Amino acid sequence: MQAYGSDSDASQFSQRIGQILLAQSKITQEQLAKALQLQAERGGRLGWILMSQGWINRLDLFEALSKHFRIPFWKVDIKKFSRMADWNLIKKLRSEKALFYHVIPIKIEGDTLFLLTDYPNFQKINAFAKIEFGVNNTEITLVSDLDFLKLIQHCYKTYLVDQSINGLFYRNPEESAYPVFTKRQIISMGVFLYACLAWCYFDSYSFVKSLFIFTQLIFFISVAFKLVLSLAGAYDEMIEPITLQEIKQLSDKNLPVYTVLVPLYREPEVIHILIDSLKKLDYPQNKLDILLLLEENDTETLAAAKAAHPPGNWRFIIVPDALPKTKPKACNYGVFFSRGDYLTIYDAEDIPDPDQLKKAVVGFKKYGPEYICLQAALNYFNANENIITKLFTLEYSYWFDYLLPGLNKFKLPIPLGGTSNHFRAAYLKQLGAWDPFNVTEDADLGIRACAHGFRVGIINSTTYEEANSRYGNWLRQRSRWIKGYMQTLLVYNRHPIQMLRNIGIKNWLSFQLFVGGTPIIFLLTPLVWIIFFIWILTRTKFLDPYLPSYVVHIGLFNLLAGNFIGIYLNMIAVFRRRLFSLLPAALLNPLYWLFFHSLSAYKALWQLFFKPFYWEKTTHGITVFKN
User: Fold this and answer.
1) Is domain 78-170 in CATH 3.40.50, yes or no?
2) Can you give the pTM of this predicted structure?
């Protein structure tokens, strides 16, 4: 894809954009010279460069374009458009084609199609008009890109919202979390519970003993699996997948357009962090397509975003008010308007490494075409704020610096993080984008990619976020994440044998242990502690028939070994980032599991049955960020 508005056909027109703007005193000679230098170095269109540098505004650009292309320019009036447009003609054209060709048809008179565009590629538009509508002539009127976006939303709002919410379900209902439990799963659970009750009734001793041994075995295997992954990730600690030299070899002129989606909801307090961090990205501004996704009823965040005066290449996408009001629905809506060959997501409070986009471009060139996504590491800029942020930072450091690299080393499916995942845009659309009914849409997408034969890799780049510093806020966020893992486990176990055949035994076992094992460990942890404390404090003989000494010893070993491994993994997490001040906090990992993760897991389990699609909103902007 070219940068927006290529100058490839400029020679056939009388005046160049720079000459027009200079004659109108919209820019200075020095600004034009600098813009021409940037164009020579980075490619792209001159007018777009001038606007992205803040030297002209959007109206200046499109008025100059209309003179350059010698076509009329119209500042759109939606009411007037609604009166003059032939709605039967508009309904005939699918929104995907309208967006691809950058056209909105108005009417046909004789052999001429009257249309609006924000991208006057005459050859492409004329070919489209002949094929789609059977006419040989076109009358083109130019509108700004933002007005064109408004027109698309006005003409296709119902369809776009419906596809953002139900598109994946329409494409393949088996991959959507909208049905929480399938009929087969409900019957299977009913039969299983009935069998357990019958077993307990006829032989309660062997039932309790077998249940305890089985749960302890699951606990041990899950913990051991994550230990192996983390050690594998630690083994590769000195390997730098993408080097500084490889980044320097990139030519800015040949870089593709990169779309950045930023979903926002009631977060006006972090807008300044967002804009400051994205302005620092080492990527040509004229090749950045930054979309701020704002909910229709969130006027406060919209006002804050406008007041911050972001660069001209940023666009505000107003997401229509519809349930579920979730981040994946907003991202799906934004994908319709994306222009880039590659696409990534940043949350409002994110501070990515400046070279992260370039590392992703290098990564996609180095990895094979089967890679749909590259995941950057996440970490926190407020690690030392309090004990909660310290524990959270240790967990994230271990997860992204050791656990995910371990999955990557063994070429196992990687559940994505909620931000800084970089996609091939065409593959993402082919896969159906995100599931708005899965509250951990990122992990779900990583597993779905594997199920369709794609792979996910990692890049050695970091995005810094704000760690939750308040207990209630942490529980809300974590319960949503765990509930999403439960949803993902259910979705891809609707046909477990078919899934096994699709992805192979290695990937299938990894999925079960990683996505299924994570919430199971958290749910089992309190039970392990309760049995241990009952036995150590009372020395009761009541449990002896149910739990012989060898069974109790298995539980004791799991308790001690599991917590030791948890502490150890949190301790090694400090080395890659030299966060040695956090080492003492690692000793609190058993309490972190018990009073944080386990409580969140039981809350998530309750919500899975009674509030499956409820999105627990995380409050950001609590920490005062100091740059």
Assistant:
1) no
2) 0.90
